[in-house]
Amino acid sequence: QIPLSSRSLWKKFAVKEFSEKSDFERDFVHHIETTLARSMYNCDDLAAYQAASNTVRDKLIVEWNETQQFQTLKDPKRIYYLSLEFLMGRAMDNAMLNAGVKDLVKDSLSELGFNLEDILEQEPDAALGNGGLGRLAACFLDSLSTGKYPSWGYGLRYQYGIFAQRIIDGYQVETPDYWLTFSNPWEIPRHEIQIPVDFYGFVEEEFNPQTNETKKIWKGGERVIAVAYDFPIPGYSTKNVNNLRLWSAKPTTEFDFSKFNSGDYQNSVRLQQRAESITAVLYPNDNFDQGKELRLKQQYFWVAASLHDIVRRFKKTKRPWSEFPLQVAIQLNDTHPTLAIVELQRIFIDLEGFSWDDAWEIVVKTFGYTNHTVMQEALEKWPIPLFERLLPRHLEIIYTINFFFLQQVEKKFQSTYSQKELENLLSSVSVIEEYYPKQVRMANLAIIGSHRVNGVAELHSELIKTTIFKDFVKVYGDKKFTNVTNGVTPRRWLREANPELAELIASKLGGYEYLLNLNLLKNLENYLDDKDFKHKWDIVKLNNKFRLTKLIKKLTGIEINPTEYLFDIQVKRIHEYKRQQLNIFGVIHRYLWIKSLSPKERKSLVQPKVYVFGGKSAPGYYMAKLIIKLINAVGELVNNDADAEGYLKCIFVPDYNVSKAQIIIPASDISEHISTAGTEASGTSNMKFVLNGGLIIGTVDGANVEITREIGEDNIFLFGNLAENVEDIRHAHRYAPHLELPESLKQVFEAIESGKFGEGDEYKPLLDSVRYHKDYYLVSDDFDSYLQAQELIDEAYKDRDDWIQKSIISVANMGFFSSDRCIEEYAEMIWDVEPLERD
Ligand code: OAK
């Protein structure tokens, strides 16, 4: 505590945020000369980026401090968003836009001899996520800050984010993404916040003769320290700045002297290095559970540190424990943080001396769980032997949770179910899967330990109730299960990614208010007959296509004249269920068709198209890697074929990431969201593309359904089988003697096998998965319907005026898909929290 007599001095010298160019310029030069120890004679774009970002950061920190102080004083209920992934992308542009200082910084930098756009390119992406789930977490943080919700994100500070993808001879090659090479101005190391986290060891029973009770005590065998790094999260057009706290693993400073004395110094050091490996690298799997010990360690490390922090903050308020769920809402971003449920129960029981029931009541009220996939292979399960070794006390607690839960189920159903039915129900909802080896089912635990479970789009939320979690609906009824359809932040995905469109919209809607209330976009429908507006709309798209072709030229060397082509884009993780194979088979089909035409016919019949692909495959996902190789091989042939020149291009953009998405998405005429119906939980890039004036071709899956409802069926190209029929079709495939392919697909397969795209045999597994291995993803069933939809697109694009009309109507009706709306829904239905306005 600073003595009262000193405080006026503190106030006098309190940091002043820059608000004028001259302030920015002064602070910039200051950072160049002191923070970076450089000078005007020694200042490249990288140094300028660092100085500029430090200057913007300083402004953020002032508001961040004040927000945190204010929240501590008011002590409102807080939301804690636990996510193992935060796919943030770049921070600088976002920070400037949110604080409303971009123009000022741009002008200042120009006066100082730099170009803002070049400087922004210096920033590495914070790529601490795989795809949809991680990017959603990032959008939510933006909306939480913008909506002034007192909230913290908790995650891990991986030293290596998602790998950088290189394409060598058409193949994906992974290279490490060491994003912390230069000091990172957007994080504040909190070296003073050090939380010990234990692993392994054993459980002891301690008898208390006074109470006549025995108590369990976990004696951990290996200790690691969690150090906090804080990332300020600015809101748009508000002084509210929330916090994202990421944990980094460090060894304890306590040295193992027994090893040291026995001369085993090297081993002693090795043990310390082992600690740091916990937060070394993000697991690069999307929608897939690999089940590695280190991953479980990551999960517990993160959850233990975060809960310690949350509980400590609560205890400081001296409120009674019964108020815990009134002050704390914890949201589990998929099952990765499910151990938090067990850890909180452990804290209450073992450390705070609660009764089981009192503790459990608080725990369940505190947690909410969001499910992000129905893919079987993504559902997390941990082998009991591993669990028992790593977290022996937690396993005991899980058994007890399960015991009481199953008892409750038995009681509820024993009078109405037969013995067999009851057994089936119990084994299906049990946290423990009784096969060899026995496993802990994390989703079951997450459901039992949360008061609300939500899916991420209407169709998905219905599906989980009738498939993977149907037996839980029997137990709990369906009130516990709800839906919050995903959304995206319009600040990053419209204003930042597409400044020209954002400005054009602002010019009609009287400013940028719509970025805070996206439903205002609806007013764009007043301009459907405004020729000048529609012309400008068209020009913006063209400019964005130019911007993308520049990027393509830089990354692949391929030159494209955007005025000639319709841009058809599919960018997302490469996965069989997302069906990039369907897309590339379609491209091949088109190529064969073009080849079959005379030059004259081509001219009159063919709509010129560029197909753009981008996305990473998990390093161990053979089939996905083969799809990448095929796309590149098709590009190699098509892009160099004179017959196809001016009609067809096929591009694979390497190393798709958030900052590239910001350039790619605004350039689409059409984007592809073509997962097998029932497999894509929501999708969020579909929303980004439409918000940027692109139309979409898609299956009746995930959020495509709600997008269609909002923008109208006339403005979307839907095709393919419906989710409700998928199981029957699969069943038919399974029992058919052989699968009959449509003629169109046969042609494509023949072309591939003939060696047009390199060694035909190479793609055998891809073709076989369709024709001999039961075509699980229904490529053959949907192919013709897909081709028809593509034809409709070609037809529709000819009437450019109508196309622009569709594009405007679509954008006008995207208000629902703002992540601000999602956060309001979570706040009301799940968290019971209110915004806190800073005075
Ligand atoms: C990743 C790992 C495990 C489980 C799910 C995921 C994941 O990324 N799921 C994706 O989440 C997005 C956000 O909710 C959805 O839009 C995607 O459809 C879904 O695949």
Features:
34 helices, Alpha-1,4 glucan phosphorylase, pyridoxal phosphate binding, 3 domains, 49% helix, Rossmann fold, 839 residues, binds N-(phenylcarbonyl)-beta-D-glucopyranosylamine, alpha/beta, transferase
Task: Give a structural overview.
With about 850 residues, the protein is α/β, with parallel strands linked by helices. Helices cover about 50% and strands about 15% of the residues. It contains 34 helices and 24 strands. The chain has a 9-stranded mixed beta sheet. α4 crosses α20, α14 (about 385-390) packs across α15 (about 390-415) and α23 (about 580-595) crosses α30 (about 745-755). Bound molecules: N-(phenylcarbonyl)-beta-D-glucopyranosylamine (OAK). N-(phenylcarbonyl)-beta-D-glucopyranosylamine binds near residues 334 and 456. N-(phenylcarbonyl)-beta-D-glucopyranosylamine binds near residues 132 and 682.
Radius of gyration: 28 Å
How far apart, in Å, are the first and last alpha carbons? 24 Å
What is the strand content?
Answer: 15-25%
Order of strands across the main sheet: 7-10-11-4-1-12-13-17-18
List the ligand species.
Answer: N-(phenylcarbonyl)-beta-D-glucopyranosylamine
Which CATH class of the largest domain applies here?
Alpha Beta
Number of domains: 3
Morphology: globular
Counted by DSSP, the helix tally is 34
Low-confidence stretches: none
CATH topology tier name of the largest domain? Rossmann fold
| Alpha-beta classification | alpha/beta
- Tally of extended strands? 24
In this structure, how is the largest beta sheet organized? 9 strands, mixed
Indicate the mean pLDDT: 97
What would CATH call the architecture of the largest domain? 3-Layer(aba) Sandwich
CATH superfamily of the largest domain: Glycogen Phosphorylase B
Helical content (DSSP H or I, runs of 4+)? 40-55%
Pfam family, one: Phosphorylase
Catalytic activity: [(1->4)-alpha-D-glucosyl](n) + phosphate = [(1->4)-alpha-D-glucosyl](n-1) + alpha-D-glucose 1-phosphate
Enzyme class: transferase
Cofactor: pyridoxal 5'-phosphate
